[in-house]
Amino acid sequence: MENSFNVIYIGGPTAIFEIDGLRFMTDPTLDPAGETYHSGDLIHTKIKGPAAIDLGHIDFVLLSHDQHYDNLDKAGRVFIQKIATTYSTIPAAERLKGSTIGMKTWETISIPTPGGSVLEITSTPARHGPAGSERLQGQVTGFMITLKKEPSLQFYITGDTVFYEGVTEVAQRYTPSYVFIFAGAAQPRGPFVVTMRTNDAIDTAMAFPTATIIPLHFEGWKHLTQNAEDIKQSYQVLNMQERLKILEPAVVTALPY
To answer: Rounded to the nearest 10 degrees, what angle do helices 198-207 and 165-173 cross at?
Structure first.
């Protein structure tokens, strides 16, 4: 399809993007189902493995954060050691070392594409839970992706965040065609959620009124409390279902721009 880019949903927060000759992945979670992870007082249990496909060559990784196994599991940690560059938070770069580059919020990195254009990656604010949870959850980031060509392409990957003023600020600065939300209403500790629930998904659609909303990170882990059907129903109730797109695992989905 002319003037389109491809997305391949792998599972959880993990997807592959193919744009102008570049291939990159979000938050590699590649372990099989049944793994249990202990991180401080957190216990994460994986209940669904990744789509069984050949991942192929990956030019770089966009990592929301490294401190939680549902965003970077054991196989994912091995995987990024083989990748030329991983972009993440500054604390993640300090912990992972190697080829991980930490980005400040609103910092932009430009990458030449094989197609002769430039792909800009901008680190966007994210808050992994309610106000005050930062000391428990640690620093996270989202990413704005801009392809500098005509016609131009811009899309937003929220990373692990709830809807809050940081997401609103992104909406004030950018007008992406697609917003990939990390959904699932995760509840790893206590009664509060630390990723987008259905209300957040609706608020995000309202903040980006011209964007198609594409959920990621809504399945595969025991602490996720909402799934794709919950998101679909919430959009249908408000007659917004045309704004929502659910990706099929392992399927190459072409998105026009």
So the answer is: 30
Output the six-digit token pair for 107.
Answer: 């910092």
Q: What is the pLDDT along the chain (257 residues), one digit of tens a residue?
A: 679 999 999 999 999 999 999 999 999 999 999 999 987 778 889 999 999 999 999 999 999 999 999 999 999 999 999 999 999 999 999 999 889 999 999 999 999 999 999 999 999 999 999 998 888 889 999 999 999 998 999 999 999 999 999 999 999 999 999 999 999 999 988 888 999 999 999 999 999 999 999 999 999 999 999 999 999 999 999 999 999 999 999 999 999 99
Q: Which two tokens stand for residue 128?
A: 């992994």
First to last CA, the chain: 10
pTM of the model: 0.96
Amino acid at 81: Q
